[in-house]
Amino acid sequence: MSNDLLPIGRFARLCRLSVKQLRHYDELGLLSPAWVDPASGYRYYRPDQARDALTVGMLRELDVPLSAVARVLAGQGADALRVARDRLEAEVARRRRALRLLDRVLAEGLPETAVSVVREPARRVRTASEPATPMAIAPATGACVARLLDGFAGVPSLVGLFPLDMAEEFEVRVALESPSGEDVLPGGAFAQALHVGPYEEIALTVHAVLAWFGDHGHAPAGPVREVYLNDPASTPPEDLETRVLIRLEDVR
């Protein structure tokens, strides 16, 4: 063993990392020690590894994923950091939306939207789908709409279709009513409420409809349908109207 090597405790203090973090990064193959004592298993590091260790610590404080950190250490980090920045920007936008919703709840209380039961006919539709995460619903929905309206003439009748359970990753679908559509949007009995306001606040109306299910002992069946009644390009966000529908699984 070289006398220049630093034991893990001293190296951790130099790099402002914990011993536990260094062990974890070693297990991931992200920052391996220069030498491991075969008898004790104790880890030792070279002083010139401090720069990499400090880089790891700084990027993790910025919420850069470990996979992107590894690419930075390998000298291939520009694209990875741009992706990490986009993720962080999307998270900031999501939290801003959450703050606006929370402000509305604080000002007005939990929504008590009027809910009614309606029967919807089956409709022939064309559909488009996109993978999404809770932080990226809007761009995924917009991409679906753009594909459906490409070359379309007339006044579109669009329906957003979203899962009841928002997992880490899920599929967003948008349906365009069309007599020649290859898909069928099933009919049946639905609980319905009218949402007036920005699309980003529709979650409050969905909450109200699902609360109605609980109050009345019915079982909801996904997906949640959002029927868009206005053109967002020409309608102020506060005046947008959206029908929110959730099918009653136990009513035929």
UniProtKB/TrEMBL annotation:
Query: Sorted alphabetically, which SMART domains does this protein's record hold?
Result: AraC_E_bind, HTH_MERR
Q: Pinpoint the HTH merR-type domain residues.
A: 5-75
| SUPFAM superfamilies (alphabetical) | Probable bacterial effector-binding domain, Putative DNA-binding domain
Q: Tell me the domain of life.
A: Bacteria
**PANTHER family (UniProt xref):** MERR FAMILY REGULATORY PROTEIN, REDOX-CYCLING DRUG-SENSING TRANSCRIPTIONAL ACTIVATOR SOXR
Q: Which organism is it from?
A: Actinomadura violacea
Segments forming a coiled coil: none
- List the top taxonomic levels of the source: Bacteria, Bacillati, Actinomycetota, Actinomycetes, Streptosporangiales
Report what the protein is called: MerR family transcriptional regulator
InterPro entries, from UniProt?
A: AraC_E-bd (IPR010499), DNA-bd_dom_put_sf (IPR009061), GyrI-like (IPR029442), MerR-type_HTH_dom (IPR000551), MerR_fam (IPR047057), Reg_factor_effector_dom_sf (IPR011256)
